[in-house]
Here is the input.
Amino acid sequence: MLVASNPYTCYMKNLLLLACSFLILFVSCKQESIEPQAMQEYSGCLIKTLEEGGVSTLFEYEGSTLLRAIDDFGDTSRMTYDANGRLVKISADESFANFQYSGDRVELIRRFDFGSYSNLYKLSYTDDFISRVESYLPNDSLRAVQILALEEDSNGNISSMFLDILDPNSGNYLRFIQADNIQLDGKNNPFNEHIAFVYLNIDNPFAYGPSNVIDADLTVFGLPSTMDTRYEYNQREYPTEADIDIPDGDRHMFFTYKCF
Here is the structure.
């Protein structure tokens, strides 16, 4: 379940992932109706997501809220925490990732595949939110091979984002995907900014923030498109169903919680 290790070999995989992402949310700050929580504070309520067709993801906890494992259709990622409750490792089959902190913020993530160091991710913040993720290969720590950037408007809300990928042939960056006119629902993201979800979707610009994206204008490799998602919510304003209209067709998802 860990993300693909080499961005040069997964353009089309990432293209499908990025253009068709559905759950999620951009980082938004300073919206009066949204009070984002710290990375390690997690409600621990989401226990299952289900897509039509039977593809399910299960979430396992220790105690009431400590996320211990994510089973994605039989592919399991397991979390390890330090004595302060900070996520320090995610393991899945032959891959694992280590998390390095500066205070309470994750600063670096190092990924290993089959025992070998394969990727370094550097995270940057604006206020308390991740605003930039740079991905490096182990043999080149000076130039990122991927750059994900999130931009805010004057009110502190995310107004656009882009993902650039380094072309190994020309040495130039290619604009892989860009999103503008982003509209949020002001409701609660079931993933609640837990750093495990951010890492497992680190190539996915829709995987960040406390609220859900409902509309966005997309440009994927220069081709215009749109994203349109409509949710149903429970009494706590968490989504229970999502209808997603994306370039490759419509999708429907269900969310199950154990707290409400």
